[in-house]
Amino acid sequence: MKRCLKCIMPDAAAGIKLDENGVCQLCKEYKEFIPKGVDELCKEIEGCVSKDAKYNCVVPVSGGRDSAYALYYAKEILGLKPLAVHNDNDFETKIATKNLEKMTKTLNIPLVRVSSKTQVIKKIVAEKFKKNAFFGVGLIVEQTCEACKYGFESASYNTARKEGVKVIIWGDSVDESTVPYHKLFTHKKPTKLQMLLSPGVLNLFKYKYYFKKMKKEYGPNSPDGLKEIHLYDYIKWDRRIIVDTIQSKMGWSAPKESATSWRIDCSLVPLVNYLTEKAYGVSKIEIGFSNMVRGGKMDREDALKQVEQIKKNTNVDELKKFIKQLKIPQTIIDKVL
Prior knowledge:
Layout: H1 25-29, H2 38-45, E1 57-60, H3 65-77, E2 82-88, H4 94-106, E3 111-115, H5 120-132, H6 137-143, H7 146-163, E4 167-170, H8 179-182, H9 192-196, H10 201-218, E5 227-230, H11 239-250, H12 269-280, H13 284-294, H14 300-313, H15 316-325, H16 330-336
Parallel strand pairs: 1-2, 2-3, 4-5
Helix pairs in contact: 3-11, 5-6, 5-10, 6-12, 13-14
């Protein structure tokens, strides 16, 4: 297997072509992202935060590294009074739970946990998996995180409104994005008729039922009237600075056995990573690392080493057991994996 000589994208990845110099089209088309700057960030939030309020911003936190640093930056660098909001998506890892408790306690920041009383997110993921299994692994990967996204947005927006807060500070980063790769494809989704005629039609209706329940439990996920700030649109995303800061200042940690500090907050990640490779010939972690290497945010050799270790640690039997816990029929597990 050949890899791009600039990033680490393999030539086995769907849609990837290496030129005569061994460079992929994503590297040739890459344009460096320039953050807007701290001055622009301060202008954006000026007038939206009250110094006299008990809390003047909400920071959604998962227990992962980037949202942890966003929480630290909001309080210690910007001098804000943040309220941390977490959506317990039924797939929270033990280390994420530990990090959430440790970092909010260390910074003396209240943590609001929002969750479903009936584990509705887990049920949505399961029914989506069963429904989409008949239309290809790519669709499973594409839609696995849908319910969690709704949950985090809803929990954050509604908590902000309840507390009279007008600013949400998100910790997502374009430097880690997998979007550039997926833009190479035009996904052909099944039509309504195809879904209705599919063997998974019952799962379609179950999924819709659970999503309706989720909306009722969580409330709307509309940001109307709120200012949304994506922190790393304004400041440089630097993996080493982020990890060093949250470890030394907040007591944050990654599992000892983990090859990377990226996405250690959700137990679905190993499965999504593996299924992405089955669907596209490249794992999600490789796509993300490639983007980081492309932007000079990660050393190529370090990325290759981590990818090799992650693949070495991937246990398909354990993934099958994990899926089985979601009450996925064995026939569908065998079909997908």
